[in-house]
């Protein structure tokens, strides 16, 4: 006959701890590489993007994901932003579609506003 007898290898049961470590070490190493090279930088970038979008205010010059460059005219509730893209042309975009902020406006100095109000009151009197 052409069929030979096959013998099963002896199974060692659970195996030694060294075999278990040698089996799991490559999987742990691959997960660590994925975490430090892919998962961690991506989550860090997402946090920065979210903080940038939440910090948008009137007067900021922004670029949308579609490539439209405009100046923020109004930040509405519900995640909408009105952009001035040309003279007398205003569009509304969803806040999350803003890709980057080109230039930020400086917040108004409160003391400068108080001084201005005082001067206006004196000129009116």
Automatic annotation (TrEMBL):
<dbReference type="InterPro" id="IPR003849">
    <property type="entry name" value="Preprotein_translocase_YajC"/>
</dbReference>
<keyword id="KW-0811">Translocation</keyword>
<feature type="region of interest" description="Disordered">
    <location>
        <begin position="102"/>
        <end position="125"/>
    </location>
</feature>
<feature type="compositionally biased region" description="Basic and acidic residues">
    <location>
        <begin position="106"/>
        <end position="125"/>
    </location>
</feature>
<keyword id="KW-1003">Cell membrane</keyword>
<dbReference type="GO" id="GO:0005886">
    <property type="term" value="C:plasma membrane"/>
</dbReference>
<keyword id="KW-0813">Transport</keyword>
<feature type="transmembrane region" description="Helical">
    <location>
        <begin position="20"/>
        <end position="39"/>
    </location>
</feature>
<dbReference type="GO" id="GO:0015031">
    <property type="term" value="P:protein transport"/>
</dbReference>
<comment type="similarity">
    <text>Belongs to the YajC family.</text>
</comment>
<keyword id="KW-1133">Transmembrane helix</keyword>
<keyword id="KW-0653">Protein transport</keyword>
<protein>
    <recommendedName>
        <fullName>Sec translocon accessory complex subunit YajC</fullName>
    </recommendedName>
</protein>
<keyword id="KW-0472">Membrane</keyword>
<comment type="function">
    <text>The SecYEG-SecDF-YajC-YidC holo-translocon (HTL) protein secretase/insertase is a supercomplex required for protein secretion, insertion of proteins into membranes, and assembly of membrane protein complexes. While the SecYEG complex is essential for assembly of a number of proteins and complexes, the SecDF-YajC-YidC subcomplex facilitates these functions.</text>
</comment>
<keyword id="KW-0812">Transmembrane</keyword>
<comment type="subunit">
    <text>Part of the SecDF-YidC-YajC translocase complex. The SecDF-YidC-YajC translocase forms a supercomplex with SecYEG, called the holo-translocon (HTL).</text>
</comment>
<dbReference type="Pfam" id="PF02699">
    <property type="entry name" value="YajC"/>
</dbReference>
